[in-house]
Each structure stands twice: as structure tokens, then as C-alpha cells.
Amino acid sequence: MRHFFYFNCPYNTILHFPFDFHLYYKPIKMKSVERRLPQEIDKSFIVFNEVGQFFPYPWHYHPEYELVMIRRSTGRRMVGDHIGNFEEGDLVFMGPLLPHVWVNDPDFENGKVDYLADGIVVQFVEDFLGEKFLNIPEMEGFNQFLKLSNRGLAIKGKVRDEINSIMVKMLSGNGLQRLSYLLIIFDILAHICIADYEVLASPHSIENSNLKVSNRFNKINEYILRNFHEDISLHEIAGVANMAVTTFCNFFKEHYKVTFVDYLNTVKIGHACKLLSEKDVNIVEVAYKSGYNNLANFNRQFKKLKSLTPTEYRKKLLI
Q1: pTM above 0.90, yes or no
Q2: 175 with 293, same domain?
Q3: Side-chain half-sphere CA neighbours of 35 within 13 A
Q4: Residue that is last in its domain, among 144, 179, 199
Q5: Tens digits of per-residue pLDDT, 47-72?
Q6: 19, burial (CB in 10 Å: exposed 0-12, middle 13-18, buried 19+)
């Protein structure tokens, strides 16, 4: 069940979204699309609790600023041209029109996990409290933070934990309480230190966000994100980009600064690192779930990227 909570709604009002997006789209074939949560004209900002077998939204963008917090589930998120893993507690702040998607691990989509994916989203537009609100002196620090958000920011450490606890409270608060919680979050972000966030997308991806080439990036990235655990051939990925293999290889190397194979291995090994933190998953299973059918090749690629064997990496995590 998915619930939408709106600022200024009557106390405890719940609006049920009428359908599941995943029944109506095929994300691998789509370019970045505008996807907006429904909002009535007399509502100021959105607090949204996404709960389901997996997160259903495709690679998309929208004009609102957005905070995304993961309460439960694991997977990979793509923000601009950045691909990273997410898990419980993950928190990302994004500026307007920045393409993004959260994709759960295959076990969620295949129904092999005994709990539901759960996330909280807060969205607001720049003038949701009036055109002059962000220009008042008290908002200067927060304005500086907003300027960073066009590339997406992963919030870390105690700041993340503090904001996450506030976002949970927003789900049960009434309209004015939710607004006060949001202003507290603004104040926290206005005073954030550089050590408490990671910039995600590259400047290059933002500069080219409105160019035709960006749609090709979107198709390639989303296909890799959803299929890296399978054997993706050059012919297959070139077909996704609607290119000949030689043309694709040159295009990829020019824009990504690495070969497709090297990039794919980086995504696979990143997923393997997450799996290695789980004590009940053996090395052979980690290799298989990360897209390697050959254990020797997995060990070789892992050591090449991490300067450690998978076993050494796991031991280091457990110290």
C-alpha cells in the first residue's frame, strides 16, 4: 500500500494512489521521463511513504527538490551519472530536474525477500512558502546548500541519522508539525559540514543533462543497473544504445573515460562489496549474484579494483 501525505491536509488524512506504476511501464526501454507525485493546488509540499515489494519508479526527473530516505531494502541507486549502492538508512538530497532511479536487488523483484521495501520521500518546490521565502536572511545558509544539490548529495553520519528520525516523525505529524519538521531539516542542512555529504553526479553529466547524448547515457546506465548480474555482451548493450559495436565502444570510452567492460566490472564489484558485508553469503554466491559465473575471474577483477581478495576484504570489514 502506498500513502501520500500533504502539508495542509486535515489531520491524519490519507490519500491512496490509484495504481501501481510498475504495471504500466518497461523501464529498460524508456528514456528519462518526467514523473511527478500528484499534488493539489492548495498543498505546499509532499511527504510520501513508498511501501511495496520493490520500488517501482523508472529513471525519471521532476522540478521539485527531493529528499529520499530508505527505511528498509537494498539495491542500487543512480543519480545523474553516479551509480551507488543503497541500504537501510541511506539518505539523498537532489535538486530539480536531476534524473534518478532507485532499483532494488533482484531478490526483491523476484519475491524472495520476506519484508517490504520501505522509503520516505519529501518534495518541495523553491517557492512553496512564497517567492521571497528563500531570500530572507535566515535562509542564506540553506540557500548555499541548495546550490550544491544540482548534482545530488548523499548525506552521511550523525547528520543523516538526525534527519532520518525527523522524516519518520513527519509521517504521523499534522500539517503544521510537518512544516516545523521540514524547517528543522533545513536548519540542519544549512550548517552541514563537507565531511557529512558526498557529491554524486559529475559536473559533466549536469552540463549535458538537456542534450540528446544524455538520453543515450540514461538508456545505457539504466540497462546496466538492472542487468549487471547477467552476462551483458557488447552486442547487447550496443543495441540498447542503437549503435554498432565499434561506434558504441568509441562513444563509451569518450564519454565515460573507461571501456564498457571496465565500467561494468566496477558496478559488479561495488555490488559484491555490499554482499561481502553480509556474513551469511559465501564467496561463491557473492560472485554469482554480482554477475560472475567464473570464480577465478571474480577474484581477479576484485583484487584489481580493491587491491584485496574478496576473503581479505571481508575479514577487513569484520575487524
Answers
A1: no
A2: no
A3: 19
A4: 199
A5: 889 999 999 887 788 889 999 999 99
A6: exposed
